[in-house]
Amino acid sequence: MEIRKPNILELEEIMMHSPQALFEGTMGRVKPTDEKIKQLIEPLLEKGCYYLIATEDSKLMAGF
Predict the structure, then answer these.
(1) Alpha-carbon distance 6 to 11, whole Å?
(2) What integer pLDDT is reported at residue 63 of this predicted model?
(3) Contact, 37 vs 18, CB < 8 A?
(4) Interatomic CA distance for residues 64 and 21, integer angstroms
(5) How far apart are CA 14 and CA 53, in angstroms?
(6) DSSP 8-state symbol, 42
(7) Res 64: pLDDT
(8) Contact indicator for 37, 15 with CB cutoff of 8 Å
(9) Would you state the pLDDT for residue 52?
(10) CB half-sphere exposure, 47, CA atoms < 13 A
(11) Which DSSP category does 46 fall into?
């Protein structure tokens, strides 16, 4: 297993699953739109925050 920052395609996959992850993480209290997720996450990424991912055999491991 390798832990690293995601590439662009992997980051797009993370962003695609983020609304569902936030929904589940708030026990169904929040159901954000894709646009809202972008508004929340993009400023953080622009300031230098980043995701870490785990890959095995070059495949993103499910954790979302």
Answers:
(1) 6
(2) 57
(3) yes
(4) 6
(5) 9
(6) H
(7) 45
(8) yes
(9) 93
(10) 6
(11) H
Using left for φ > 0, alpha for ψ between -120 and 50, and beta otherwise, residue 23 falls in alpha
E-strand ranges in 2-58 read 2-4, 53-56
What's the structural domain count of the chain? 1
For the chain, what's the residue count?
A: 64
Domain that holds residue 42: 2-60
Q: CA-CA distances (angstroms) from residue 3 to 19, 20, 21, 46?
A: 23, 23, 20, 21
pLDDT in tens, 3-56: 999 999 999 989 999 999 999 999 999 999 999 999 999 999 999 999 999 999
Cβ(2)–Cβ(53) below 8 Å: no
The strand pair at 2-4 and 53-56 is best described as: antiparallel
